[in-house]
């Protein structure tokens, strides 16, 4: 979602978030480290490389593709926990965003998957945005033709929702 799949660079989440932060008098640079189609395993494999840029804050938005592929929620949780630990060890603030399992995978899978994000946020005492696609999911006018990835208008809604949390988290950056 953060990689900007199907969008012009200026319409992606990182670009729109950076513009919104600047409008709020927070001169921040937002780096897009998202990879379309990435799973938490891919994110774990890349985290040390991503942290070489020494970010002050990381918005961790991973897991949607794990859910779409029906991967084991326990593995998703282990991967995210490892990613969070590595980011925190490098001294960056982490904002965790949640995702929800597709309903076609059943109630048991959905409950196990959906619990990953709030449990990790609580365990690590992280700023938490419960559902990255809040107010956008299943809204045809806010998504691309695939019905999964937000369009520029959908991204703008996501940015408006998460912006207050990101601004508060930036206050904790040393």
Description:
By secondary structure, the protein is mainly alpha-helical. It has a single domain (9-170), classed as 3-Layer(aba) Sandwich (Rossmann fold). It has helices spanning 13-23, 40-50, 64-68, 73-89, 107-124, 152-170, and strands at 57-60, 93-97, 128-129. A three-stranded parallel beta sheet has the order 1-2-3, with helices on both faces. Helix 2 packs parallel to helix 4 and helix 4 (73-89) runs parallel beside helix 5 (107-124). It is globular.
Structure keywords:
174 residues; mainly alpha; 3 strands
How does the SSE layout of this entry go?
Elements lengths: L12 H11 L16 H11 L6 E4 L3 H5 L4 H17 L3 E5 L9 H18 L3 E2 L22 H19 L4
Parallel strand pairs: 1-2, 2-3
């Amino acid at each position: 979602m953060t990689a900007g799949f199907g969008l012009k660079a200026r319409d992606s989440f990182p670009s729109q978030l950076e513009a919104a932060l600047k409008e709020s008098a927070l001169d921040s640079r937002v780096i897009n480290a998202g990879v379309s189609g990435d799973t938490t395993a891919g994110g774990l494999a890349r985290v040390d490389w991503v942290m070489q840029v020494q970010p002050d804050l990381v918005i961790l938005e991973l897991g949607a593709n794990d859910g779409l592929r029906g991967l084991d929620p326990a593995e998703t949780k282990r991967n995210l926990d490892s990613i969070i630990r590595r980011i925190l060890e490098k001294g960056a603030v982490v904002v965790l965003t949640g995702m929800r399992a597709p309903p076609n995978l059943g109630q048991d899978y959905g409950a196990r998957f959906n619990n990953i994000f709030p449990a990790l946020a609580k365990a690590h005492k992280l700023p938490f945005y419960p559902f990255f696609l809040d107010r956008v999911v299943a809204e045809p006018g806010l998504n691309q033709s695939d019905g999964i990835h937000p369009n520029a208008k959908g991204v703008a809604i996501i940015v408006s929702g998460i912006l207050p949390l990101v601004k508060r988290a930036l206050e904790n950056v040393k």
